[in-house]
Amino acid sequence: MEKIYLDNAASTPIHKEVIETMAQVMQSNYGNPSSTHSFGRETKSIVENARKLISKELNCLPNEIIFTSGGTEANNLILRSAVQDLEVKRIITQPVEHKCVLETVLDLAKRYHVIVEILPVDHKGRIDLEDLEQRLKSSDVKTLVSLIHGNNEIANIINLEAITTLCYENNALFHSDTVQTIGHYTFDLEKSPIDFLTCSAHKIHGPKGIGFVFARKSLGIRSMITGGKQERMMRAGTENIYGIAGLAKAFEMAYQDLDTNKKYIEELKKYAIEQFTAHFPDCIFAGGSANIDDSLYTILNVALKNQPDLIAFELDLKGIAISQGSACESGSTQKSHVIQSILTKEEQEMYSNLRISFSIYNTKEEIDTLIESLKT
What we know:
Layout: E1 4-5, H1 16-28, H2 38-58, E2 65-68, H3 71-84, E3 90-93, H4 99-112, E4 115-118, H5 129-137, E5 143-146, H6 160-169, E6 173-176, E7 196-200, E8 211-215, H7 230-233, H8 241-256, H9 258-279, E9 284-285, E10 299-305, H10 311-317, E11 320-321, H11 337-342, H12 345-350, E12 351-357, H13 364-375
């Protein structure tokens, strides 16, 4: 049975060139980056060259890039250090954030009595910028705003520039989970006053277990993991040299081929919308995912009427890998917290949501196979 993979928001296939880069480093560069001999220096240069490559593309300083084990650790580092080291007393976020942000914020509220304000969202999963502005102006308490740039389930994209400006004008820190958007969109961090961004390599055809934080040098966040001077004392522990090399190669390839890849994947998404609309006229598209010009071009969330709750498992038996929500929700038979935030109880009972996420390795023929499988 030929298998079809349409769950790229959870994780992407690794580029062949990334694997080759990592294999070469594994074979030739086994010194500890903290060692002062030639083997260590050679390995250390791989880490620093990766940092320079990333910072050049994002237009920031190399020492503003901190390597982590991925997006979850990156988001935790920012949120926890903001409270513990930057004296943040209030966090403003939204109910459609990734669990690694929501659960961390709630944990901080419990441990440190941080004030947490959850912005309401409309039926499309969008916040009201005027509401955010009023909240920022209502208090002088040191505040961190944490809003996901591109939603990993319903594909909504926030107005990053407008929110960054609001936070800057009201002396609030701004963190955005950009795990689904770095490598798919361009960023100029010299022009933007945004404070924190995060990345995970396995969302851009790189290896799992590696990512990074962008943190403004002047802000002074501190390490969450202690016991060594690695990452300029921002993350103790021997660097994941093979992962860092793979991340750098995947990052480089993402931006080299950005326009071509974006155009190809956008066409796949448009085709999928057309096919679902034609064959399932009573389907609805959750959030803003069907808005081609204002949503992640890699994700489509479609809700099908009167389909079994375990539809993803049914599709898996047909060789089609697809998701009904975030990968972090796997194993749950309940609707994800994101879908519960935007659909009424009646809609949740009536519809089964599928998150289809595309990459350059997908084809229109695979979408045709998905449609035919759903029809049966």
